[in-house]
Q: What sequence folds into this?
DNA sequence: ATAATTTTGTAATGAACACTATAAAACTTT
DNA sequence: AAAGTTTTATAGTGTTCATTACAAAATTAT
C-alpha cells in the first residue's frame, strides 16, 4: 500500500523543471516559433516522453502557461507587495517591469503573458480563457494592496483601487511593448516619478 | 522614351493591394504562423511572383510593416486628430482603440504592431528597428496635438506633452492586451472618463 | 516577324515540422 | 525469478514548410 512508489519504470526527469524549461522556450520563441525539437532539447527529454507526459504541443503550452501563472513569482508583483511604503511600492513595481522587460539574457523578451497572447490567443483554442483569468487575478492582487493602504489611512477613502490597479497593469503593457522594440532602460525611467503620481494621486 | 511602359510581360496584380493582403495575414497569424501558402492565397498570386517582387518571407514582412506604418489611417489616430475639442479627442482616441481591438471580424486581433512585435522583434532581424521608429513617430504625433492645444490655450503651458503622449500610447497597449484575452468592450469602457482626466489633468 | 525581357503557372526541391510505432530498459508486484 | 507495467531511446511516419528550376505566356524593342 505504498502511495509514493508507482509501478513501472520511474520517470527519469523532473516534471516541473521540464515545464519551466518549456515556459522559457515558449517565452522567447512564441507558440508557433517553438518547435518540438527546441522544446525537447531545452527540457532535456526526448519527444515520446514529452508526448506521454504532456500530451501534444498545445496541451504542453497550456500547462506551461498555468505553471507560469501559479508561480506567483512575477518579479514586479513581488517588488510591489514586499515594499511597505505604497509610493515606493508603486515605483518599485514600475522599475521591476522595466528591468524585467529590458535586462533579460536572451535579448528583450517582454512578459510571458504578453508574448504568449499575441501568438496564440484567438488563434489557439483555450488560451484566451487562461489570460482573462490572469488579468483579473493580477488586477485584483494589485487592488488588494491599495485597499489595505486605505484601511491604514495611507490612501484616501475614495481612492479607486481597482481602476488604478488596471492602470498599473496597462502601463506595464506599454513598457513591455517599448522594450520589445528595443527602447533602453534609461529612456523609459525618465518620467517614472510622474507616473507614480498619476497612479496614486 | 516611355517611362511607364517597361519591357517584358506586365505584372498581373496590384503590388500595393497584394501588400495590404499580406498585412492582413501577418496581422491575424503572426510572422511564424503565416505560411507562404496563406500569403499567396490571400494575395491572389503564386509563390514565384511573391518571391520575385518581395524577396523572401522576411522581406515581405518588413515591407508589410512599412506599408502599414505609412498608411497613417490607424483609426484611433484619425479619431484623435479629427476631433477639435481636446477632451473629446482623447476620449475618441481611447474609444477607437477599444473598438479597434474588440470588434474586428476575425476575432480580436489587437494592433498589427503589437501583434507583429511579440512574434518577431528580437527574433527576426531588423523588425525592432521598424517598431522603434513607429513608437517614436506615434508619440510625437500625439504630443504635437497637445502642443497645438497649449498654443490655443486649451492646455496649461506646463503641460508635459510628450509624457502624456506616451501615457496614451501605453494605455492603448493595455487595452489591446485585454481585448486579446477576450475582455468585452463594455467592461473596458467603464473607467474611460477617469482615464481621460488622468491624461489631461 | 524575330529577338529580348519579364512574369506567370506547374511542379518539384530538400529541410523541418508535429507526432508515433516499436522494442529495450527500469522498475514493482507476485 | 518471472510477470506486469511504465518510461525510455531509436528511428521512423506523412505532412507542411520556405524556396526555386523550368518552360510557357505576354509584353516591348529591333
A:
Amino acid at each position: 500500500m505504498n502511495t509514493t512508489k508507482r509501478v513501472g519504470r520511474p520517470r527519469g526527469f523532473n516534471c516541473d523543471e521540464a515545464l519551466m524549461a518549456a515556459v522559457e522556450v515558449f517565452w522567447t520563441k512564441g507558440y508557433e516559433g517553438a518547435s518540438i525539437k527546441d522544446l525537447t532539447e531545452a527540457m532535456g527529454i526526448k519527444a515520446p516522453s514529452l508526448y506521454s507526459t504532456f500530451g501534444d504541443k498545445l496541451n504542453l503550452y497550456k500547462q506551461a502557461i498555468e505553471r507560469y501563472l501559479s508561480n506567483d513569482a512575477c518579479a514586479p508583483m513581488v517588488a510591489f507587495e514586499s515594499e511597505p511604503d505604497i509610493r515606493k511600492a508603486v515605483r518599485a513595481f514600475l522599475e521591476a517591469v522595466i528591468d524585467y522587460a529590458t535586462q533579460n539574457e536572451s535579448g528583450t523578451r517582454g512578459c510571458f503573458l504578453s508574448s504568449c497572447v499575441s501568438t496564440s490567443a484567438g488563434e489557439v483554442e483555450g488560451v484566451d480563457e487562461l489570460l482573462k483569468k490572469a488579468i483579473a487575478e493580477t488586477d485584483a492582487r494589485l487592488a488588494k494592496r491599495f485597499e489595505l493602504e486605505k484601511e491604514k489611512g495611507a490612501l484616501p477613502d475614495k481612492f479607486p483601487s481597482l481602476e488604478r490597479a488596471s492602470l498599473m497593469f496597462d502601463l506595464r503593457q506599454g513598457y513591455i511593448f517599448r522594450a520589445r522594440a528595443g527602447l533602453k532602460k534609461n529612456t523609459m525611467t525618465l518620467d517614472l516619478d510622474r507616473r507614480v503620481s498619476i497612479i496614486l494621486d
Q: What stands out?
A: Chain B is about 70% helix and 0% strand. Residues 91 and 196 of chain B are 6 Å apart (CA to CA). The domain at 15-70 of chain B is CATH 1.10.10.60 (Arc Repressor Mutant, subunit A). The radius of gyration of chain B is 20 Å.
